Amino acid sequence: MAEPRKRVAILVSGRGSNMAALIDAAAEPDYPAEIVAVISNRPGAGALAVAARAGVPTSIIDHKAFASREAFDVALDAELSRIAPDVVCFAGFMRLLTPGFIDRWEGRMLNIHPALLPSFKGLDTHARALAAGVKLHGCTVHLVTAEMDAGPIIAQAAVPVLDGDDESSLAARVLAAEHLLYPRALAMWARGTARLEDGRVRFGPEPEDSGLLIWP
């Protein structure tokens, strides 16, 4: 008997292109996860319409309606508890979460960051990569921990930095890699071929070489 598919909730704040990549991947019958909910902290997020068109239930928890970060996190925790996902995927979710929320969901939260961590944590990653003169840039899927962009790495995709690149052209190349990487990383996590051991992500019993690194 096939293993049941993992239930995934996606948190969004914007247009949701990575969310759409996950939804598309989960539409395949052999994909090991199903997208059961999309939650936005911004009522006008374009991702909500994309998810609705795909038949995925959506909800809005407007962070501006709460007096504190803690109060927002309590509401988000309540909604996630109602949905009961196995995995929570951040897809352009522009909120820093409180330690209490992180403690409750740690080990179940995945994020994609537009840089090859541990380089270029935080914002403006493409501009900083260009300023640093790196020849490789890319994206990273990692587990969410209390320290921003510092959780154990699941998978990475590398892209070249080309002569003549500006922030926009480099961002587009990285985004295309993100759309390939995130579904592969989620699949590995959902199957259990990627798992957390002693603070690092390990792989097995079958190798997943094709999913660990995408070049270019």
Tally of discrete structural domains: 2
Distance between the ends:
37 Å
Proportion in β-strands: 25-35%
CATH homologous superfamily grouping of the largest domain: Formyl transferase, N-terminal domain
Number of strands: 10
CATH architecture of the largest domain: 3-Layer(aba) Sandwich
State the CATH class of the largest domain: Alpha Beta
What is the number of helical segments per DSSP (H or I, 4+ residues)? 7
3D shape? globular
Order of H and E elements = EHEHEHEHEHEEHEEHE
Radius of gyration: 17 Å
Keywords: Purine biosynthesis, Transferase
GO molecular function: phosphoribosylglycinamide formyltransferase activity
EC number: 2.1.2.2
Family: Belongs to the GART family.
Short description:
It is built from seven helices and ten strands. Helix 1 (17-26) packs parallel to helix 6.
Notable features of this structure?
7 helices; two-stranded antiparallel sheet; phosphoribosylglycinamide formyltransferase activity; 25% strand; 216 residues; transferase; Rossmann fold
How would you sum up this structure, described in words?
The structure is a single chain. By secondary structure, the protein is of the alpha/beta class. The chain has two domains: 1-105, 3-Layer(aba) Sandwich (Rossmann fold); 112-192 and 212-216, 3-Layer(aba) Sandwich (Rossmann fold). 36% of the residues lie in helices and 25% in strands. It contains seven helices and ten strands. The protein has helices spanning 17-26, 46-53, 69-83, 99-105, 125-132, 167-191, 209-212, and strands at 6-12, 33-40, 58-60, 87-91, 109-113, 136-143, 153-160, 194-197, 200-203, 213-214. It has an eight-stranded mixed sheet with strand order 3-2-1-4-5-6-7-10. Strands 8-9 form a two-stranded antiparallel ribbon. The model has no long low-confidence stretch (mean pLDDT 94).
